[in-house]
Protein: Leucyl aminopeptidase
Amino acid sequence: MSLTFASAAANALPLHVLDMEGFDEWLRAQPPTARTWITASGFQPTTGKSLLVPDSTGAPIMALGGYGSAASRARARFPLAAIAANLPKGTYTLANELPDGDLDTELLGWLLSAYTFDRYTKRTVGSARLICPKGVDAIRIESLAAGEALTRDLINTPASDMGPAALEESARLLAQTFDAAIKVATGEDLLAQNFPMIHAVGRAAAQHRAPRLIDIRWGNTGPALTLVGKGVCFDTGGLNLKPGNSMALMKKDMGGAATVLGLAHMIMSLNLPLRLRVLIPAVENAVSADSFRPGDILTSRKGLTVEINNTDAEGRLVLADALALASEDTPDLLISMATLTGAARVAVGPDLAPYFTDDAAFAAALESSATETSDPVWRLPFWEPYEKMIEPGIADLDNAPSGGMAGSITAALFLRRFASDQRYAHFDIYGWNPSPAPARPKGGVAMGARAILNALPKLLDL
Structure:
């Protein structure tokens, strides 16, 4: 797959992107032969429809693409990508301005329409190439596409080939590509370096899938941004074993790690003037004689004790140690991303990236950016009255409050205890697209990364 723009070509076919509101007027302005062909073909510019228009010899002289109506575009993302998916193989150039919408976002959608996960079987998609219009920052758009593709590839790869060691190798490759520093604490070294909860969650896995903390640093000047991503490469639920149906998609439980790595790729490839740190606790929540147990009490890196009431609430445990480490550096902005709770998925579904923050300025900048980039988010509250739900009495914190109420909020409150008093946001993402859509095939997907990237200039005064 090539998630890049085509080079200029003499034989590039002009593509007219047409919407329902302006189609009749445009059609009347066409030469009679073209108008007759288009009318006889029954073409209407509904979303994704395409048509090649020939000259008198039968050779195509232009292509038409349906951009739908304003109402249909308000309900779906990347309508230009829907056109790209239906065009014949070839090179195209935009013949007109888009009826509305953000051109950069629509061009990104075109590139992402060529994405396919073909590690295990070969598939051909995205054969229509586009020449980037003049005045558009092609390098930026290609960087976003590459970061998104990295996230998708990592999530889509099954746990057989994406355990903690493989996730580390992916992180090392990223660091090497951008000359970033990386260090990794693994296995028993986690205890020596005071990451006891990461060790406890991952210690039941086979030795070659031992738990680890991945720590990447890049950049020497500017404000400090730290990204923490949940890297649970597979989640059986531990001794609180998941039923089979709930385990089927657990290869995506490292979606937070995949998303922060994709976002890091974007930041570094665009050479943003900041100091970036990426922390990934990478584990497999397996079952063995050494599994941590319900009723255990763990002591975290921060010194807070945690009662284990459900071993299937393990993500917040590994994130807690990583957040405690991140807070010791007091970054200007700390963000955690995790496929953390089913409650978040139930609340907002698979399309929205729910997030938590106490910072009104962060929320305003993020939500404006999310609209601009077609990367939707939804704010949920750090609801203070629920703090008592995560305090079991026998320990400082409860990793899985009983009752099933407000599961995403209580998980976020748990994490906030380890983020200290600083600018912090937590994203409880789903990381999976259950139904194919333009530029968004079924499978792993980044959520919130582009919205964050676009908001960073405001958030960090870049």
